[in-house]
Each structure stands twice: as C-alpha cells, then as structure tokens.
Amino acid sequence: MIDGFWTIKLQGPQFSEGGVAVFMNGKIFGGDSGYTYTGTYEENNNQIKARVLVQNFIPGRPNVMGRQGNFELDFTGSVNGNVVNGSGSIVGQQALKMNASMTKKSTL
C-alpha cells in the first residue's frame, strides 16, 4: 500500500528538486523549497495515478517545470515495494514532462 511518508526526487526540463509527500487515504500533502503539493491519487495493480495542485509560496521561485505560479499536474508511476518511478505533465500540456522517483520512508 502506498499510504505513508515519502521523499521525492524531481527532474524537470529546467533543473532538479527534492521534496516530501504524505500519501493517506487517497489524498496527497507535500511540498519542496518553494511549492506545496495537494491532491488525490488512486493505486491499482502496482500503478499510481495522481492529480496534484502545485502552489507557489515563495513569489518568483521557478519549479522543475520551468513555471512560476500555480498549476495542476497529472502523474503516473509504477510501484515497486517502497519505490515509485514515474512521470508527470502539466494538465493540458502533455509535451512538457518531468520525472519523479519516490522512496517510502515510513508507514503512517
């Protein structure tokens, strides 16, 4: 089960970033050095699909997608034990992608 506390390594078209997230009962709560993440997820047959609202809390700070400001992200990944690898794109802009690797650090 994916519920737990996770570290996240993000690689986008602009640069890399690290963050954390809590996955709990279909909801996501997390962030990095300039953005918060809130959203929902579904897990099925070792696959995860998520929709995440990415919100800026440090004005002017870009993110791995090369954007400033808020946006929604669609993410899909493969679950292999305590590791998830996948990719995401800004909703409506599938050509602009980022990769993510998550490692589960604790259950809830």
Features:
single chain, 108 residues, mainly beta, Lipocalin, eight-stranded antiparallel β-barrel, 8 strands, globular
Distance between the termini: 11 Å
Structural class label: mainly beta
Q: Count the E strands.
A: 8
How are helices and strands ordered from N to C?
Answer: EEEEEEEE
Number of helices: 0
Highest-level CATH class? Mainly Beta
Described by the principal axes of the CA atoms, the overall outline is globular
Share of helix among residues?
under 10%
CATH superfamily: T3SS negative regulator GrlR
Beta-strand content: over 45%
**Total count of domains:** 1
What does the radius of gyration come to?
13 Å
Report what the structure shows.
With 108 residues, the protein is mainly beta. It has a single domain (4-106), classed as Lipocalin (Beta Barrel). Helix content is 0%, strand content 69%. The protein has no helices and eight strands. An eight-stranded antiparallel β-barrel has the order 1-2-3-4-5-6-7-8. The protein is globular. The protein starts with a strand and ends with a strand.
Structural topology:
Blueprint: E1 4-11, E2 16-24, E3 27-31, E4 35-44, E5 47-56, E6 71-80, E7 83-90, E8 93-106
Antiparallel strand pairs: 1-2, 1-8, 2-3, 3-4, 4-5, 5-6, 6-7, 7-8
Quick overview of this protein structure:
The chain has 108 residues and is an all-beta fold. The protein has no helices and eight strands.
